[in-house]
Every structure is written in structure tokens, then in C-alpha cells.
Amino acid sequence: MNVDKLREQLKIDEGVKYEVYKDHLGYPTFGIGHLVVEGDDEYGQEVGTPVSEERVNAIFESDVEKFVSESEKVFPNLKELPEEAQQVIVNMCFNMGAPRLSKFKKFIAAVNDGNWSTAAVEMMDSRWATQVGVRAERLRDRVQALSN
Length: 148
Fold this sequence. Notes:
Blueprint: H1 3-14, E1 17-22, E2 28-31, E3 34-35, H2 53-74, H3 83-101, H4 105-112, H5 116-124, H6 127-132, H7 134-145
Antiparallel strand pairs: 1-2, 2-3
Helix pairs in contact: 1-3, 2-3, 3-7, 4-5, 5-7
């Protein structure tokens, strides 16, 4: 998977901040949508605490590995799917996690059948699509384009 392309897409969708901030749910976050967890150097740091570009890049690499692995729990055939589908799936997993992604039963079935038009429709038939708005539309369009 092209991790550089994924990074650029996630920078658009998640943003990138070189300091600790509160996400839309009030959780401490930094970098490219990295939720601060116990064990992170940033754990317990105040909002506004600077984080280096090197640290942001390192934690992103770790997060990508984690979310590719999480995506493979939902799509064991992930690496056999078209590159664009892999990118979208990991992006979605990065955003909502594998437990929530695994609830997209009709989307999963459509992807596994290679039915990209149906997969695109099923992505939008969710509370997630309402919550993330333009991001969902952009990801849907990328999946829809696979059917052309």
C-alpha cells in the first residue's frame, strides 16, 4: 500500500497538528489524528504542548501499521483488493476503528463481491457519513470510481 498517498489523504481528512489538542469529542490528540493514549510521551500533557514533526511522522507510521492490521480483521483479503479500495478502507478504519467498521455489513459484502457501486451507496447509508460529511463523500467517490 502506498503509505505516502495514505498520509496525504489522512492529512486532508484528519488534519495535522504539531501540538496536543482536543478532538471534536474532547479527547487529547496530536499529529495526524493520533489519539493520545497511556504510554505516549504526550499522555497527560496540556493542550498546546508542542510535538515535533519527527514525532508526528513516527507515530503516524505506527498508527498506519496498526490500522492496516485492524482493517485486515474486517477484510482478510485487504491486500488483494485494488489499491484505491485499500486506501479507502484503511482511511475509514483510521477514523472509526475496526469494531465500528465491522458493522458496515452491506458495505463489506459489496467490497468482497467487487460491487463498487453498491459499496459506495452503503458507505453513505450510515451515521458515520452524516458525522464526517465531506470526508465520506470524497471516500465514496473514490470507491464509486472503481466501477468505471
